[in-house]
Each structure stands twice: as C-alpha cells, then as structure tokens.
Design goal:
79% of the residues lie in helices and 0% in strands. The protein is mostly helical and 169 residues long.
C-alpha cells in the first residue's frame, strides 16, 4: 500500500500538471512544490542514502540553472522550469535523468508538431463542432508541461528510486 502510494506521487503530480497546462497554460506552483517536498520522505522510506539524496539535489540544481537560462530568454515558461526541476530531484544525477530529459525533448518535439498541425487546421476543426482548449488552438506558446509529464510517466519506473521503492516498501 505504501509502495503504491510512493510510486504514484510523481506520476499523479505530472498528470495534474499536464492537465492544468493543457486547459489553462499554467502549472500551479503547488504541484512542483508538492513533488519537491514529497521526494524527501519517499527517498527516506525507500532507503536512499544521504549521498544519493545530495546527488539528487545537485541534479535538481543543474536542471534549474539550465531552465532558468531558458526562462530568461523567454524559451521556457516558469511553470515548466519549476516542474522539470522538481522531477529532476526524483531522478538523481545519473543516466535515468539523461534518459528522462531526452524523452521529454522527443515528446516535446512531437507535441509541438501535433499542436502546430492542429492550429493550422483550427478553423476546419472548430467548424466540425470540436471543442478544443485555447492552448491547442489560439495560444502562442506550447503547453510543454504535457511533454514533461509524458516523459516522466514513461521513464520513472526505470529510475533507481523507483527500484528502491519497489523493493524497500
């Protein structure tokens, strides 16, 4: 029961962030903050050592610095930056973080192409009576929280922390 709850926190938070970004083009601060704070008790319960937790914090700091630079040049939204930072904490500074970021990049590219296609055919889609969120039809930016969430849901199970949770709890 506890393992299921611990394994479900990150995917649930990611799903909520994706839904919010799709519908409102915003990721509420409470989601990345909750994910950030939930990492520490989950890591402790799973038996993640202090050094590994330190590496996870370093991973989050590195991702935050990269995201901050992208935010500063208006290439990334603040909610996306906070969400990526919180998720990086769960992955740690290892190959699973790299796999996650690459997956997010590929999913984000595909998502961008699909949204651009939808926007180019928006008049036709709307004339068919389809009700689409503004983020898909008229927004100027891409709701990248969706890609961040899909990447996390696809790759979290292969992280060292997820493995520890399954065996320790």
């Amino acid at each position: 029961m506890i393992a299921s709850l611990a394994l479900g926190i990150l995917p649930l938070g990611l799903a909520l962030a994706a839904a919010s970004d799709l519908l409102t083009m915003k990721i509420p601060n409470a989601i990345p903050l909750t994910l950030f704070l939930a990492f520490f008790p989950v890591a402790g319960l799973a038996g993640l050592g202090g050094v590994a937790i330190g590496w996870s914090c370093l991973a989050a700091l590195a991702v935050f610095c990269a995201c901050f630079a992208l935010f500063a040049v208006n290439a990334m939204g603040g909610g996306d930056a906070k969400l990526l930072t919180a998720v990086a904490l769960w992955y740690g500074f290892n190959i699973s973080l790299f796999e996650y970021l690459v997956t997010v990049a590929f999913v984000g590219g595909a998502l961008t192409l699909v949204i651009l296609l939808i926007r180019s055919k928006a008049d036709r889609l709307l004339s068919l009576g389809l009700r689409l969120p503004a983020s898909l039809v008229t927004a100027r930016k891409i709701p990248y929280g969706i890609a961040i969430a899909i990447g996390g849901i696809l790759t979290f199970g292969s992280t060292p922390l997820a493995g520890l949770i399954r065996t320790a709890l």
